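Lab meeting notes turned into a lecture example. A postdoc, R.K., suggested we walk through two folding results consecutively so the class can see how the record format repeats. The first protein's sequence and structure tokens come next.
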Amino acid sequence: MATTAQQSVPSPRRLALPGRAFWVMVHRWAGLTLALFLAVAGLTGSLLPWIEELEAATAPELHNSSWTGTPDPLRVREEVLARYPGAALDFLPLSVEPGKALRLHLHWLDPKTGLEREHGPGVPEWDDLFLNPVTGEEQGRREWGNIAQGQKNLMPFLYRLHYSLALDTFGTLIFGIAALVWTVDCFVGFYLTLPPKTPKPARTSFLDRWRPSWRIRWKSTPYKLNFDLHRAGGLWLWPLLLVFAWSSVSFNLPQVHVPVMQALGAQDPRLILEESALAVPRNNPVLDFRAATERARQLAEQESMKQGLVPLEEGESWLWHVPTSGMYVYGFTTAADIGHHGGGTGIAFDSNTGKMKAVYWPSGVNGTNTFSNWLTALHMAQVFGLPYRIFVSMLGLLVTMLSVTGVVIWLKKRSARAGRSLRVRNT
């Protein structure tokens, strides 16, 4: 027979998930926290699908160039480095769009450490140089993103606002955390649009009870209209909101995005550069840019043939020297590219020996990479042409609308709670 003590031991309880009220509170405070970030990102993001056109319109003297003949970025780069001793130029576009200038981004090295210097003696107040890609004639300069230099930096400044509130590394981190919260809140918000459970078997189907969440009562009170715009707007846009939220994590918070995507089978091309980090930067490799370009094109053709592809002349190509890893990275265009600009297929090789280290295919080889790259292309409005660019601009404004309507809902409910508390105290 069981003892009294044994009989009084309580049975273990099942772990209960938080109820709907808890998730309402989570969504409310997540929304209030994100309101500023999403409003800024939405407003600036509505302009970024047109950044090339807006750059040309706000600073035509920099971006537009009249030239005939064949551009020679390699020669222009050599002339620029001879003109500015102490400068380094690690990224070189190898293709130039007709009617456009060649933009080169320079930086200055510390002669002792070999690392980049941002300020100090000998460091000028500019880093972007715009040149005629045929003659090498300089068209203008700017410090990228410095709005104090005027209209020529308007679009770079808006771009900085978009991903970091123009607060550089700190802002990028904060925006990355906000993007992660946004990603989680996408699922919380979706859950809250679902009809609550009924204590008894419902007389109507689930879809009939869910249908009001999709509707907007245009001819209603201002509060109900605001509420419907927030709930139904978020529901109709939900798939793309999630796309933009998670892709924002990839841009701003790789320390979270990379391990998650690796767990799903992705191969991040940035890891080869981190894993090959050198104790001292290799600023003067055996292969100069001309030799590296020739080697890169050989490797690109070899690796493309293995995949049954060919490097395409149309589309972008570029060469990036990474001194801290002792490598060159060559970007070129193949049928595996997703974005309309191309240049998304890449090869990394040793900057001394020319030995290939890695090859990256944006689609068709690794399913998770293909998925991730599609998210990036959707975020950057690099697919589906003009109609999708227009849609992304509208989406940016709608994201701002969702932030504003969410704050309005909170203010209205806060006012109602304050009114109830006042009435209770007066009774």
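The second example is placed directly after the first for contrast:
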Amino acid sequence: MRVLFAVYAAKTHFYNMVPLAWALRAAGHDVRVASEPALVPAITRTGLTAVPVGDEADTPRDEATSGTSWRDLNAGVTETRPEVLTWDYVLGTFTIACSMHYEHATGGRSMLDDLAGFARDWRPDLVVWDALTFAGPVAAQVSGAAQARMLFGIDYIGRMYCDYARLLAEQPPERRDDPIGDWLAGRLARFDTAYEPGLATEMMTGQWTIDPTPSFMQFPLDLPFRRMRYVPYNGPSDVPEWVRVRPEKPRVCLTLGMTARESLGGDLFSVADMLEAVAELDIELVATLNSEQIAEMPVLPANVRVVDFVPLNDLLPSCSAIIHHGGFGTLGNAMVHGVPNIIAPGHYWDEVGFGQALEGRGAGLMLDYRQKAGEGLRSGLDLDGLRTMLARVLDEPSFRANSALIREEIEATPSPRDLARDLERLAAGDR
């Protein structure tokens, strides 16, 4: 069968899809990956076939999108308190998301036009779309393909959409504003494709939802989920010799990921301060930093090794703990290898939710600095608290034991190869 993956130009979102794409390719299927031009080199380096869609100029990934930051746009969707999720709140959140976030921040008009046009010409049997790339389900509907949504973390969109659909049905006719239906209808109309109200759920949450996130981190939603084992993909790389040498002291990895420094205007707090705080412990600290981050700290402690990049899948088996921002790729690597986490969360999507879930399982701790920021987020990091947390995670065996239990649960989850067989049945079924 022909399988089209659709993802906007974010490496972390694409890397999340690579193991499944290769499982389908290895099963004999014709696989293409459509994204904006900025991501094409990363796609081709995986050995997969890239389909450039959209204009280079339509790939803004900075802190501002039409005057509204990614953090502000996401904050509404990640709200979970039942008393806040009224019809007015949910309606307002999706009105903003459809008009700004979904329309502009994940590809814009040119990506949608190109993707739908390619899908009509190539006629895929299945479209697998990143859960923020809503051009994907539009292209599937236009071309008649089956389609599956692929999550990259906690399903906040699915959760809020379920509230939206329920609350919309409860409204009197005069209050049934439907920005999601209007947005989807407008996108389909550009390709002379009819929209029916029943399509909204399918196009927002997929005919199936592929979920590589451990089930204890997800909401109990009544959606057609297909669980898939998280398989790390860290990009093309080689493994330095020192990684294979057993450390004499507990090895700790500190990373704030690549997304913030490459696409979101920099880290939320000072890496230099974090290094200085935890390097006081009797550990070997491996920090992934670029030249700008290193410049913040002219003198590095003797027990700190700085590298621009090292594949976490190869480094973490030798680590006793990892300190990071809560990004799904970093967290997934850590959970696969049973490494306890300390999360100093970003506030872009699900970082806080991940930290809370890990604390609940006794597999990590979260340094929540939101209430400490008197002069902005950078000044709000509790460095003493970070050092104390790391000492505790290293000293108390329960963190390692509970992390090992999560690793066992992940290993028992169906693999990408297993899911490839299910997707064959989806593509062959009644759409």
